[in-house]
Design brief:
191 residues; alpha+beta; Aminopeptidase; eight-stranded mixed beta sheet; 6 helices; 8 strands; binds coenzyme A
Length: 191
């Protein structure tokens, strides 16, 4: 596929966000079964490629309360997924989830850019007022990434998650629409 034919929903500098395709299921299944990735996620059961295909096929029916997009490098390599989940239209709040499954792309600012793009979309297109998330206390890279995007810690549920033989803290974080950092980062969305 030539660059001109690429499907892009939200355009960034290093990465773009695009709808997932059924053909992405193999990659998703590789990532979601990888213990190095899932140590940071709440999933704990084996996941079959067929389940990923079904999940991708169902995404179109979950809009607008759940919106999931693939994170693709500018060169067109799918490296992860990001989403807004369980959006509450009365309270105008949503929950962010992100996973970069291609480990060689960790720590290269792709996560920061993807989070900034999707919170810009949440605030400036969906007109939401708060984006929430939860993260394991030992996931320092994720916490730093979220702080860079303007998230603040709202609380900590001590020893909430049983993971790899021990209890982990669950940190609750959120970012509000009125936030100078968010306003600046949302300009990454190319007009
Ligand atoms: C969490 C995640 C989205 C972050 O995206 P990323 O592209 O790797 O992160 P970025 O490069 O944008 O930012 C990472 C920050 O952590 C720092 N960092 C990088 N590697 C680190 C490490 N091993 N330990 C601690 N901090 C680290 C970076 O320096 C940067 O912080 P800084 O801006 O203060 O310098 C991504 O790593 C990921 O998906 N990991 C696996 C699944 C996961 O953890 N999902 C989140 C569940 S809540």
């Amino acid at each position: 596929m030539s660059r001109r034919d690429k499907v892009v929903f939200l355009a960034g500098n290093k990465i773009n966000l695009r709808p997932l395709l059924k053909s992405d299921a193999g990659k998703l299944s590789r990532w979601i079964n990888d213990p190095e990735v899932t140590q940071y996620l709440s999933v704990y059961l084996p996941m079959y490629e067929k389940e990923e295909i079904d999940w991708i096929e169902n995404l179109s029916k979950c809009k607008p309360n759940d919106i999931v997009l693939g994170i693709e490098t500018i060169a067109g390599i799918l490296i992860g997924t990001i989403g807004l989940h369980g959006t509450n239209w009365k309270d105008r709040a949503t929950n962010l989830g992100i996973s970069i499954g291609e480990k060689k792309y960790w720590g290269k600012c792709c996560g920061t850019e993807a989070v900034s793009l999707i919170i810009g979309y949440a605030f400036e297109t969906l007109n939401l007022h708060k984006v929430c998330l939860s993260v394991f206390g030992h996931n320092e890279r994720a916490i730093r990434c979220y702080k860079r995007c303007g998230f603040k810690t709202e609380g900590c549920r001590k020893k909430q998650i049983f993971k790899n033989g021990r209890y982990a803290d669950e940190i609750l974080m959120a970012v509000f629409k009125v936030n100078k950092k968010t306003e600046r980062r949302s300009k990454w969305i190319k007009q």
